[in-house]
Write a structure and sequence with these properties.
heterodimer; A: 197 residues; alpha/beta; Beta Polymerase, domain 2; 2 domains; 4-stranded mixed β-sheet; two-stranded parallel sheet; 4 helices; globular; B: 387 residues; alpha+beta; Cytochrome-c3 Hydrogenase, chain B; 3-stranded antiparallel β-sheet; 9 strands
Chain lengths: 197, 387
């Protein structure tokens, strides 16, 4: 965790989505983490073919602390030729998550959830069980803390004293999951040898 | 063999690294590694006033800055409940600038796509056209790249004198320039060889990877936010949604070219509506700055000016998702307000990021050389992928 904790910016314990009736066209559903997977599967079978977006919000003092937000788009099944979709309905699914609670992955339902879940994990620290490759995506792999959390200081952890992470560490050639058929050590050796020669 | 392509590779359109697993020249697995341009825009916005945050969201998609600005402004206007009170002239100018920015963005895409494939001259034709549009942006908003012209409540100011003449000249020049661009590439056998049947995205795959925009429409699904959920008065304009069924890089090329022509159709319609003068900013002292000349004469105007500059306006609590059709696809902002003068959370739905992710699905089984074509045809902008 960051060493210099600063008070959160406007971290009031309110829950804006509950304060106001929805003002955009999307229908809204709130689902508990336990029922999430089954409900999303059902929604997908109902024709919500596209996962428009997957993000998260940190309410800090609220219980549960986080909301993971899914935006779904209902598209008619594609037949031959060009599919006219008209005005497809949208659905926003909110799922409250506690700080150390895990969520099931949906990357087997929608492939695009892969990077979206990695980003939520990277920036909020929410773990998605069953994700095949859950590692940091935006921040360097050795970064500490989750920057979009409200208790993460705006300027990062004591940047003046800590050395800046080098871009060399960002590369998953050296650090991430190795591509199939290669071990991590072998790759490291290879990179080392290449650098020496 | 594992090969790292990028992040300093000229054909990756920014800073993209792709870790490739290859067998001779064939790609077995492609794993794009993003985040080299991560600037923490979403976090930065949480510390800025609602009006200030506008300047940072414009930096996401730096090839079409006005589209980010418009999407953000529409979302905040919805939260404020002032969507219906935006003056008609402001809406028309917004549409005009949205479509101009789409043409300018597609010009960059086409120019760089051409360079990737060895057609250098296309780039100059494209950038000449883009320069005309940037001139219009500069004279309207004050800056070429990030005009910050669209504001919450309307626009920064009315169109300057002489913009209509510039615009008319552009409208006149455009069809000829499009003929030249098509003539350079569309029937070019080398270009066709490099793009036809390359990077085929089936409709099912496109939907599974959440691909939107021209890339989705090139796969035969006519989803366009301008038609599906019209905003800023798009329902009053006549235009077609170009689609193709092949889903390859050539289809995406054709869809974008057709789209540029449709955009010009909208520009012409918007141009006709702009003959009548009118206000371009909402008449609400709680949101819009008072006219400069009233500040010296009216105490209220002075107070409103001081309050808006020193602490900004407050937005009622709530959450909203607003999306628009940016040149790359469905750009959305999910904004949460807790009633303060700063956004509580600003989540972007980045079209480039989702489109680029599809590379994992379409790259395996293709040649390394074709990877360059696929990246180009998906048209990612890394300011937006990484934010």
């Amino acid at each position: 965790m960051p060493s210099t904790q600063v008070p959160p910016i406007a971290g009031t314990a309110i829950d804006p989505p509950s304060l106001r009736p929805p003002i955009d066209d999307a229908a809204i559903e709130r689902i508990a983490p336990g029922a999430l997977r089954a409900r999303l599967q059902q929604l997908k079978d109902d024709g919500y073919a596209m996962l428009l977006d997957l993000g998260a919000v940190d309410y800090l003092q609220r219980k549960p602390r986080f909301d993971v937000v899914y935006h779904l788009l209902k598209l008619p099944p594609k037949k031959a030729g060009v599919a006219e979709v008209g005005s497809p309905p949208r659905l926003r699914v909110l799922c409250g998550v506690e700080e150390n609670e895990h969520l099931p992955t949906v990357m087997d339902l929608w492939k695009s959830a892969d990077w979206a879940e990695r980003e939520v994990y990277d920036l909020f620290g929410i773990v998605f069980d069953g994700h095949s490759d859950l590692r940091r995506i935006q921040m360097p792999h050795d970064w500490e803390g989750h920057p979009l959390r409200k208790d993460y200081p705006m300027r990062g952890p004591a940047r003046e004293r800590a050395p800046r992470p080098s871009f060399a560490n960002k590369s998953n050639v050296i650090a991430g999951t190795p591509p199939s058929g290669r071990t991590f050590e072998a790759l490291q050796e290879e990179v080392k040898r290449a650098r020496e020669s | 063999m594992v090969l790292s392509m990028g992040p300093q590779h000229p054909s990756t359109h920014g800073v993209l690294q792709i870790v490739l697993e290859i067998e001779s020249e064939n790609v077995v697995k492609a794993d794009p590694e993003i985040g080299y341009l991560h600037t923490g825009i979403e976090k930065t916005a949480e510390g800025l006033f609602w009006t200030q945050a506008q300047t940072v969201v414009e930096r996401m998609d730096y090839l079409a800055p006005s589209s980010n600005a418009l999407c953000y402004a529409l979302a905040v206007e919805k939260l404020l409940g002032i969507t219906d009170r935006i003056p008609q002239r402001a809406r028309d100018i917004r549409v005009l600038h949205m479509e101009l920015t789409r043409i300018a963005s597609h010009c960059v895409w086409l120019g760089t796509h051409g360079i990737d494939l060895g057609a250098i001259s296309v780039f100059f034709y494209c950038f000449d056209l883009r320069e005309n549009i940037l001139d219009l942006q500069e004279s309207a908003g004050g800056a070429r790249m990030h005009p910050n012209y669209v504001r919450v409540g309307g626009l920064n100011g009315d169109l300057p004198d002489g913009q209509m003449a510039q615009l008319d000249a552009l409208i006149e020049k455009f069809p000829g320039r499009m003929r030249e661009l098509r003539g350079l590439l569309q029937a070019n056998p080398i270009f066709q060889d490099r793009t036809i049947d390359v990077g085929v995205l089936t409709p099912e795959e496109a939907v599974a990877w959440s691909v939107t925009g021209p890339s989705l429409r090139a796969s035969g699904i006519a989803y366009d936010v301008r038609k599906a959920a019209p905003y800023s008065g798009y329902e009053g304009y006549e235009f077609d949604v170009p689609t193709r069924e092949e889903g390859d890089a050539y289809a995406r090329f054709l869809v974008r070219l057709d789209e540029m022509e449709q955009s010009m159709r909208i520009v012409e319609q918007a141009r006709k509506r702009l003959n009548e003068p009118g206000p371009v900013m909402i008449d609400d002292p709680k949101v819009a700055l008072p006219p400069k000349e009233t500040i010296a004469l009216s105490m209220e105007a002075l107070i409103h000016h001081f309050k808006l500059i020193s602490e900004g306006f407050r937005v009622p609590p709530g959450d909203v998702y607003q999306s628009i059709e940016s040149p790359r696809g469905e750009l959305g902002y999910y904004i949460v307000s807790n009633g303060e003068n700063r956004p509580y959370r600003l989540r972007t739905r980045p079209p480039s990021m989702y489109n680029l992710q599809a590379l994992k699905g379409i790259a395996p089984g293709n040649l390394i050389a074709d990877l360059v074509v696929m990246i180009g045809s998906l048209d990612p902008v890394f300011g937006e992928v990484d934010r």
